[in-house]
Amino acid sequence: MPESIRRRAREEREEAAPHGRRTEGPGHDGVIFRKGFASLTELALSGVQVTACAVDLESGRVLFSVDDHLSVPTASIGKVLLLIEVAARITSRDGGRAAAAYRGSAGDRAVPGPEALSILNRTPADTVGDSGLWQHLHVPALPVADLAALVGATSDNLATNVLLRRIGLDAVRARGESLGLRRTLLLDIVREERGPDDAPQLSVGSARELANLFRRLERGEVVDEATSALVRGWLSLNTDLSMVGGAFGLDPLAHGSADHGIALVNKTGTDAGVRSEAGFVIGPSAGVAYAATMRFNDTGVSARLAVLEAMHTLGADFLEYIY
Fold this sequence. Notes:
The protein is α+β, with helices and mostly antiparallel strands. The protein has one domain (72-322): DD-peptidase/beta-lactamase superfamily (Beta-lactamase). It has helices spanning 3-16, 34-45, 79-94, 97-103, 144-154, 157-167, 169-178, 207-218, 225-235, 301-322, and strands spanning 20-22, 24-25, 30-31, 49-56, 62-66, 72-73, 119-121, 141-143, 185-186, 203-205, 263-271, 274-282, 287-295. Strands 1-5-4-13-12-11 form a 6-stranded antiparallel β-sheet, with helices on both faces. It has a 3-stranded antiparallel β-sheet with strand order 6-10-9. Strands 2-3 form a two-stranded antiparallel sheet. A hairpin with a 4-residue loop joins strand 12 (274-282) and strand 13 (287-295). Helix 2 (34-45) runs antiparallel to helix 10 and helix 3 packs across helix 6 (157-167).
């Protein structure tokens, strides 16, 4: 093969690769996240759209980014914005007592205030399948705080729709705007099918905004510390560790406190051809706030497994950094 043809083929591969950067950091033997970046680049060359960002929790320094400015479908990640608005209403009306309930141990939790205990009924119009537990339970009504816990733990679609009926999408959008989010939005309620008059996606987001949002959550800067603490408490219940979070060796059903010095708070999103995760992880030496979304042709299990393996590899790089 002539050298000119080889060169052109090489250039085409480079053009198809994601536009990203890695950071060099002291104490980490030069370039960090080497394996994760290579894995995501390989995915991108195979046709997967990759967006990702990681920032140091302490300094806010960008450690890793791949097309992190793009706003892409993020499935259920947008439910975090709903939880923030719910928490803000609870803390403003209950004086932060509900947030204290999530900070204490099981034996000394404070009693949540009246807003957190407001009872909401489910209706036939709220009904939707897929993720969540409430659809499988007999209880017809639950307190606001319990519905938020279900969303944090299992991304409960029915609980999401009931909370949205109470809160309203406009309020959630206004809250996101007040937090400076321009490319990260919860667009709609959860639907079994999306028609031509419905939003095409449940939510969209940019990896850059999501990573920084989770950094602010960890630092108590989302609205205020009481609100941030409530949201962290709900998200710490998340049972989905199938993506980036699967690299940390935590118990999917019980990781509300640090395990081997590792603490994780995250939210995942899953849809046909979409795998998305945002969160923060803290270790003995450092902490990382991160977001990663993969859009791929989900025509077979091999394509899906390749995406999950790459996200797991990225998580392994994060684990190395925080240790």
